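CO-FOLDING WORKSHEET

Operator: S.A.
Ligand of interest: zinc ion
Run index: 427
Mode: holo prediction, single chain
Checklist:
[x] sequence pasted
[x] SMILES validated
[ ] output reviewed
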Amino acid sequence: LLFSLFREKKRRRVVEQTEKMLVDGDNGSTSDWDDRWNHLKKFLERSGPFMHPDFEPSTESLQFMLETCKILVIGAGGLGCELLKNLALSGFRNIHVVDMDTIDVSNLNRQFLFRAKDVGRPKADVAADFINSQFHIIVCGLDSIVARRWMNGMLLSLLVYEDGVLDPSSIIPLIDGGTEGFKGNARVIFPGMTACIDCTLELYPPQINFPMCTIASMPRLPEHCIEYVRILLWPKEMPFGDDVSLDGDDPEHIQWVYQKSLERAAEFSITGVTYRLTQGVVKRIIPAVASTNAAIAAACATEVFKIASSAYLPLNNYMVFNDVDGLYTYTFEAERKENCSACSQVPSDLHFSPSSKLQEVLDYLTESTSLQMKSPAITTTMDGKNKTLYLQVINLPFKLGLADGQELAVADVTTPQTVLFKLCFTS
Ligand SMILES: [Zn+2]
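OUTPUT RECEIVED:
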């Protein structure tokens, strides 16, 4: 069903071919030599035992891939670059890249193309238009869960429901790859139809942070010393000026943190602080393994090919890859979560006693494994007016003063949309 709907969508959204990628040379002309795409034609222009049951071999699929299909790749790091190479060699010529390296999560919206005509428009709207009017498939090769969730939320916000029924032409498939050292995963998401990133949020463990008391007074590891300098010493001493925040890519900054961490480590007789480790801790680097990136990128590019050509059934829907010791891989079908705060269309219930404080609600939003918000801001409607209950900068512990069943709208960096909750008082 999905595939025939997707084909219909392709017909509806014939996009003008724009610039050619560099694979075709920089003179702007295509340089298809004879038989260049023969390897693809074998998959697309004749039938085979693994072909999608509804697929009819033709020359159209290849033309669509070469001329029309537009792909947005998010992330141009280790995984992203591998993906770009695979996609280009698979015949895709309309590839846009949003590089996350220069991105601060709060700036995610700004990474999309903004033009003079967009001035004054909400940035999330501009990003939505940009994606919606242009792309057939989105591929994520990111190392940030927040950025992934934001993209997931963006695609969910583009879905069109008519009388509660999802319009399939509004679906943009998301292929998501992720690696961490020797482990990786690839998954296929049809927003609104199959499990989304937030449906399976429990799979992502929260980032490990060291307890503040350990960092401040009982360091045992070199990392504790570096964290001490990063979190406590930098804001106190402001070594490069009052409003200069620590930049992991600035060698002078890292050098300063490194020297101070050495002093701290000497105080507690801790060894192992190096410049490299300092940079690793400051930038939260998990060592990349090229072979894992290569395997995951290959899996993702294959899924893009399958979906763009409609010739094969896509991965259903989550592949796990592990080459820590030998090679271990399997796939399973991640299921949609009925009350997913991102894709369920139904406000989730928040259970609190009438005497709870707002701080408890905020703690729940950030600490719950299924929500993992970063800096939630809550608004609600009172007497027909929008009222902000909490801004991250104001920390006032006061009683809720809200009614049972009250709807709360929560904004957070993990999503471009506000998330709705219903307050349910417990006795
Ligand atoms: Zn979901």
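REVIEW:
The pocket of zinc ion is lined by residues 196, 198-199, 336-337, 340, 342-343 (CB under 6 Å).
The chain has three domains: 48-205+289-332, 212-283, 348-425.
[x] output reviewed
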